[in-house]
Structures are given as C-alpha cells and as structure tokens.
Amino acid sequence: MSIKIGDKNKIKNSNIGHQYNAPPPNKNKTFVERHPILISFLVSLVVGFILLFSFWKDIIDWIEKLF
User: Fold this and answer.
1) The pTM is what?
2) Is the separation of the CB atoms in 41 and 49 below 8 Å?
3) Would you give the DSSP letter of residue 7?
4) Is the pLDDT assigned to residue 5 strictly greater than 80?
5) Which spans does this entry mark as compositional bias, Basic and acidic residues (predicted)?
6) What confidence category does residue 8 fall into, taking pLDDT thresholds of 50, 70 and 90?
7) Sequence-ordered list of residues with C-beta below 8 angstroms from that of 51, at least 6 positions apart, any chain
8) Which run of H or of E encompasses 42?
9) CA gap 53, 67 in Å, rounded
10) Does 24 fall in a domain?
11) Facing residues of 4 across strands?
C-alpha cells in the first residue's frame, strides 16, 4: 500500500489505524452457564422442600433462646 501526498511524496507500506481483534468467545459453556434461570428455579424448589421439614421449629426455638 502506498499513499501519495503532495508532489511526488510517497509513504510506502504504512498502516493507518490499527485494528485489534478480541479473542473469540469461548463457545463451550457449561449447562449452568447456558440455563441460569432453570438452575435458579430448581435450587429454589430444593430449598423450599427442605424448609418444609418440621425440625426447623427446633432450630428457630434455639435461635430465639440465644436472644
């Protein structure tokens, strides 16, 4: 590439404006990275199921006794 400026002035093999390319994104995402809403829904179901058990009353009573 050569650029002619004015009277017989030449700039040879010049680069005007460098282009920097970012590396391509990693396409090997895990299942959790591809489906965050589904995972959060499943986690909330599991936590809700655990909170249904009756032993939580004993834990709440123990915490209330501390204060």
Assistant:
1) 0.46
2) no
3) T
4) no
5) 1-10
6) low
7) none
8) helix 36-51
9) 24
10) no
11) 10
Residue at 35: amino acid letter: H
d(CA 36, CA 29): 12
For 2, residues 6+ apart whose C-beta sits below 8 A from its C-beta are 10, 11, 12, 13
Has residue 50 been placed in a domain?
yes
Query: In terms of residue numbers, what domain contains 64?
Result: 31-67
What tokens does 63 get?
Answer: 């915490």
Number of domains in the chain: 1
Q: How far from 65 is each of 59, 60, 62, CA to CA, in Å?
A: 10, 9, 5
In a domain? residue 26: no
18-47 per-position pLDDT tens digit: 777 777 777 888 899 899 999 999 999 998
- Which residues, at least 6 apart from 31, have a Cβ–Cβ distance to it below 8 Å? none
Is 39 within the bounds of a domain? yes
